[in-house]
């Protein structure tokens, strides 16, 4: 009797969980379209420069807020997809993938190139290329976002003595206080809210990274010093190499 009940409960819980992730995915998807339309109109209005300055400022604020909403929706959608979708398992060519990710992120930087890529390992990973790409570009995006404009960011792909491999993203930016490190991979958590007010973000990026890594049997190690910089390391076990 008790056993049967427990089995039923679990099925029931799984159904609820599934409904929840489907719901988030559907709602995020539906919210995207009107928001894109809104942003289009706002851009048009902003281009009409001759209005009173109070208009200009209002349009700027509205644009900033819609952009924020867009990021939030995109991240929620990605997270919901990760939770509901079975991951692909293919041999992902890491050198190519990292080359692309670094190149794309660096192009977004208006001034000098800041990203260096060092490929000390030739290992490839069994997993889902899109997910890995999302995780790596999130880490790189953060490194660029939370460090000063011209400061370099180093990306490394290397072997460890025990046969595992790691991806490391190092920056020389603002760093993270020790007590906040354990919390930054939580959903919606943003460290040092006051200082980060001007830096756009949803607090979902690292939650996504963590999720992707768990799905690839990998660990995330974070080392950081306030005012000095941070190092995010994803360690993949040797069973994942291909
Ligand atoms: P977001 O960047 O959207 O706020 P994340 O989940 O990617 O969300 O990161 C959570 C928080 O962790 C950030 O708000 C920031 O405070 C901190 N953080 C992440 N990466 C770095 C980094 N490279 N340097 C300093 N702080 C970081």
Could you characterize what this model shows?
The protein is α+β, with helices and mostly antiparallel strands and 242 residues long. The chain is 52% helix and 17% strand. The protein is built from 6 helices and 7 strands, in the order ααβαββαββααββ. It has a 5-stranded mixed β-sheet, covered by helices on one side. The protein has a two-stranded antiparallel ribbon with strand order 1-3. Helix 4 packs antiparallel against helix 6. The protein is globular, with a radius of gyration of 21 Å. The mean pLDDT is 87.
Number of strands: 7
Give a list of the ligands: adenosine-5'-diphosphate
Low-confidence stretches are: none
The number of helices is 6
Q: Indicate the overall shape.
A: globular
Rg estimate, integer Å: 21 Å
Query: Which class do the helix and strand fractions yield?
Result: alpha+beta
Portion of residues in beta strands equals 15-25%
Major beta-sheet overview: 5 strands, mixed
What proportion of the residues is helical, as a percent range?
40-55%
- H/E topology pattern: HHEHEEHEEHHEE
Index terms:
242 residues; alpha+beta; 5-stranded mixed β-sheet; two-stranded antiparallel ribbon; 7 strands; binds adenosine-5'-diphosphate
Q: Could you give a quick summary of the protein structure above?
A:
52% of the residues lie in helices and 17% in strands. It has 242 residues and is of the alpha+beta class. The longest helix has 46 residues, at 2-47.
Question: What is this structure's SSE topology?
Answer:
Layout: H1 2-47, H2 53-84, E1 90-92, H3 94-108, E2 115-119, E3 125-127, H4 129-145, E4 153-159, E5 165-171, H5 193-196, H6 205-215, E6 219-225, E7 229-236
Parallel strand pairs: 2-4
Antiparallel strand pairs: 1-3, 4-5, 5-7, 6-7
This protein binds adenosine-5'-diphosphate (ADP).
């Amino acid at each position: 009797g008790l056993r049967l009940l427990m089995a039923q409960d679990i099925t029931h819980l799984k159904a609820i969980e599934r409904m929840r992730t489907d719901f988030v995915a559907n709602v995020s998807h539906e919210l995207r379209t009107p928001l894109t339309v809104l942003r289009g109109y706002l851009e048009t209005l902003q281009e009409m420069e001759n209005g009173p300055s109070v208009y200009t400022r209002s349009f700027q604020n509205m644009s900033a807020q819609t952009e924020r909403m867009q990021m939030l929706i995109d991240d929620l959608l990605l997270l919901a997809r990760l939770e509901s979708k079975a991951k692909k398992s293919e041999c992902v060519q890491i050198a190519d993938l990292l080359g692309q990710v670094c190149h794309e992120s660096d192009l977004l930087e208006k001034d000098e190139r800041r990203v260096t890529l060092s490929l000390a390992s030739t290992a490839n990973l069994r997993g889902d290329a899109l997910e890995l790409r999302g995780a790596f570009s999130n880490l790189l995006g953060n490194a660029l976002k939370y460090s000063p404009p011209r400061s370099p960011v180093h990306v490394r792909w290397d072997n460890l003595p025990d046969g595992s491999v790691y991806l490391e993203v190092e920056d020389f930016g603002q760093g993270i206080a020790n007590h906040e490190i354990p919390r930054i991979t939580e959903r919606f958590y943003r460290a040092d809210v006051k200082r980060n007010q001007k830096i756009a973000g949803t607090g979902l990026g690292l939650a996504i990274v963590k999720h992707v890594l768990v799905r690839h049997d990998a660990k995330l190690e974070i080392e950081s010093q306030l005012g000095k910089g941070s190092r995010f390391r994803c360690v993949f076990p040797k069973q994942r190499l291909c």
